[in-house]
Amino acid sequence: MRTKVAVIGAGPAGLLLGQLLHKTGIETIIVERRSRDYVLGRIRAGVLEQGTVELLEKAGVSDRMHAEGLVHDGVEFCFDGDKHRFNFRELIGRTVTVYGQTEVTRDLMHARDASGAVSIYEADDVTIHDFDTDKPKVRFAKDGVSQEIACEFIAGCDGFHGVCRASVPAGALTTYERVYPFGWLGVLVDRPPVADELIYAHHARGFALCSMRSPTRSRYYVQVPSGEKVEDWSDDRFWDELRRRVDEETAERLVTGPSIERSVAPLRSFVVEPLRFGRLFLAGDAAHIVPPTGAKGLNLAASDVGALAEALTEFYQGRSSAGIDGYSARVLARVWKAERFSWWMTSILHTFPETDAFGRRMQRTEFDYLVSSEAASKSLAENYTGLPL
Ligand code: RFL
Ligand code: PHB
Fold first, then answer.
1. Is the CB of 100 within 6 Å of ligand 1?
2. 221, 262, 348: which to mutate for ligand 2, most atoms within 8 A of CB?
3. What is the CATH number of domain 5-73+96-176+268-345?
4. Atom 9 (ligand 1): residue with closest C-alpha?
5. 297 Cβ closer than 6 Å to some ligand 1 atom
């Protein structure tokens, strides 16, 4: 097999890159180690920045998102029971859209099927080669048969545990990492959301988040210590814990039901530099991880591949390598700002085992300042709705 760009991974980053490149006539093959159903079964992000919405429009996959996605003008923070709403539309004239990652992925898979472009699911033993030359290769096995793709570029969109970052020679990479001593236990339930907008709650017992997927499907999270097992949490235990962490009115309004999915996600901040090695590019979770508190992971993956698609288009149509040469620095500048915001949201909203009385007063004072200062509220609003690339 032969193609221009071999894309490793069919998560949102890989599929969106494939679609953006298809729009500019650049041929791709996507190689994914899991099945389609497995990829669609992963319940993850829910909040799209305005820039992500615009990129999905550009990719021609926005019809269902506009029909079914929920446009939110703001979010609420609840600090030890005291609630405050941040109205992004009033503060800075921007909004976010609640539309599940699963649905974004489904729309992108349909568009790729319609385009006739090749996607290989359930590819085993994927390896990448010769990306320090202008003839890179991807090898894998499909149904026990070894295959090779000769290509001109490789896009590593294979997530945090992928093969692409791991294939870069040691010493060529610098990594920055922080692992938090807690995770999020998430529950998906077919019951109407407790409120019209998201509620981020800080409580002495830990963080909680009330989110949603649709007017009839809700997504809730509670902070749990690292290593917590999902089997140790019955639905009743989860609902009791959630009620204790939010304000009384929200607790009373909560409509509970049997969970349809439950999982624990660890929290981590991680960045690797640079994002290009010869003819290999890293994008999305393969390059960086944020704790989910700022709702940035999917949005960063989208803006990375938006920039990469522009750079590759410039290479093929404009015959200039300026875009691909500048990719890493351009993308990393935005990544670090999203890392800062996600770390900051995590720091004020969670309880940390090592935090003393002074630290707790600092968290409270951050909240009071946010609420009382229009400048601070605007800063939250511009970061949450997404900074420009
Ligand atoms: P993905 O989605 O992990 O996709 C990578 C794909 O690569 C495949 N793969 C391989 N394929 C071939 N060969 C190999 N050797 C391979 N190794 C792996 C994998 O099977 C997979 O299909 O990465 P991508 O595309 O970069 O997308 C990133 C996002 O998925 C991620 O950042 C977000 O889900 C993070 N996230 C959130 N982001 C937001 O913007 N807003 C949110 O509200 C939000 N909430 C969340 C989140 C992540 C969460 N978890 C579970 C980590 C909430 C949670 C709970
Ligand atoms: C979600 O709905 O899954 C979600 C929403 C906001 C976040 C993280 C996750 O910050």
1. no
2. 221
3. 3.50.50.60
4. 158
5. yes
Q: Which of 200, 220, 221, 327 is catalytic?
A: 200
Is the separation of the CB atoms in 172 and 277 below 8 Å?
yes
Question: Stretch 32-39: mean pLDDT, rounded?
Answer: 97
Rounded distance from Cα 221 to ligand 2 centre (Å): 8
CATH class of the domain defined by 181-267+351-385:
alpha beta
The answer to whether residue 318 scores a pLDDT higher than 90 is no
Known catalytic residue at 83: no
**Is the pLDDT assigned to residue 380 strictly greater than 90?**
yes
Amino acid making up residue 101: Q
**Which has more confidence, 198 or 388?**
198
Distance 285 CA to ligand 1 centre (A): 6
Q: Stretch 1-28: mean pLDDT, rounded?
A: 98
Residue linked to tokens 């909560």: 254
For 51-76, give one letter per residue: b (16+ CB within 10 A) or e: bbbebbeebebbeebeeebbebbbbb
Which ligand has the shortest distance to the CA of 41?
A: 1
Edge-to-edge strand list for the sheet holding 174-189: 82-87, 74-79, 199-202, 208-214, 217-225, 174-189, 259-273, 288-289
**Active site includes 72?**
yes
Band (339; pLDDT cuts 50, 70, 90): very high
5-73+96-176+268-345 and 181-267+351-385: identical CATH topology: no
Across 231-259, average pLDDT? 98
For the cut 90, the answer to whether the pLDDT of residue 73 exceeds it is yes
Domain boundaries, the chain: 5-73+96-176+268-345, 181-267+351-385
- Give yes or no for a contact between 37 and 124, defined as CB atoms under 8 angstroms apart: no
The length of the chain is 389
**pLDDT tens digits for range 94-126:** 999 999 999 999 999 999 999 999 999 999 999
The 10s digit of each residue's pLDDT in 1-11 is 999 999 999 99
